[in-house]
Amino acid sequence: MAVSSPLQLSVVIHPVVVLTICDSYERRNEDIEKIHGTLLGKVEKERIEIRNCFIDDNPTASGKKKFNLEEFQRLFDLHQRVYPNEVIVGRFSTGDQIDDTALAMQALFSRVIESSYVAFPIHLLVDTNLTDSHMGIQASVYHRYGVPGNDNGSIFTPIRYAMGYYPEEMSASQLFQRNLAIGGIAPVHNDMQHVIATSTKIDELLDEVLKYVEDVTAGNTPFDSKIGRSLSDAIMAVPQIDQSVFKDMMNNSTQDLLMVTYLGSLVRTQLALAEKLNTIL
Questions:
Q1: What percent of the chain is modeled with pLDDT above 90?
Q2: Where is the JAB1/MPN/MOV34 metalloenzyme domain (predicted)?
């Protein structure tokens, strides 16, 4: 990756990374205050997408952290079997600031993977202490500095990042946000409730689109070519189906759904009956 400055980097973090770090922090031993691990993802020119992570620190008997290269390599090899396209992009640690342990492990780690995957390894700091009543996330890049032949100094340069979502992650994130908005734990909706909520959301978005188009047509809002192109692509993506054909498709789908529901109910009844007969016999 040919990047001359860390400020040129574009970093995208997936929610599963933050959730994995939080889960590992909650499952740590009571005598461990912070956890450290490796970030993995995909590198494309100046863009780094952080998709996964794993814990690799090994506390010694004295409580100090020790980087075990063999253990790290074993974990990375296992991860590569499942995600062969993901490479090492940096490190992470928990807490409200980067401490000496994180700095030492990042320095050692950077020497081990130097120039193998990324020019500037990322360091992700997740504030699991909830300082100021929220969990802060800080991304920075680690690099050494100094005169040629004597670059013993090191520095973490803060960089901007954005959260990236797969469709599945977006649904889960929206569920979390809805629970946060109501200030408590909300029950998980069933399929019909999801359909109703999604339909309502689509209806609201269509109202916003119609209002925007009307405002542009009336000259109240300036025309934006990017928005117009996006609306055109969305309209072209809608299948053009005749009304009668659409009704037939819906009727056939409904009949198939009823048949599957009936068969499922029949199987459950047979299993319950077989269980009672086995108990009697």
A1: 12
A2: 10-147
Identify any residues that bridge with 67 across adjacent strands, giving them in sequence order. 57
- Asked if 13 and 140 count as a contact pair (C-beta separation under 8 A), the reply is no
pLDDT of residue 68: 72
Is the Cβ–Cβ distance between 92 and 37 less than 8 Å?
yes
Residue 7 pLDDT class (50, 70, 90 cuts) = low
d(CA 235, CA 212): 15
Name the residue with tokens 């253990």. 71
CA dihedral 112, 115, 117, 120 (to 10 degrees): 100
Kindly give the residue spans of alpha helices, DSSP state H, lying in 38-142: 69-82, 100-112
Tell me the one-letter amino acid at 20. Answer: T
The domain 6-163: what is its CATH number? 3.40.140.10
Please name the amino acid found at residue 33: E
DSSP tag of 142: E
Mean pLDDT on 224-228: 88
Task: Give the count of beta carbons closer than 10 Å to the beta carbon of residue 139.
Answer: 23
3-class DSSP assignment, residue 208: helix
Question: Please, how many CA atoms are within 13 Å of residue 92, restricted to the half-sphere of its CB?
Answer: 32
Q: Are 124 and 159 in contact (CB under 8 A)?
A: no
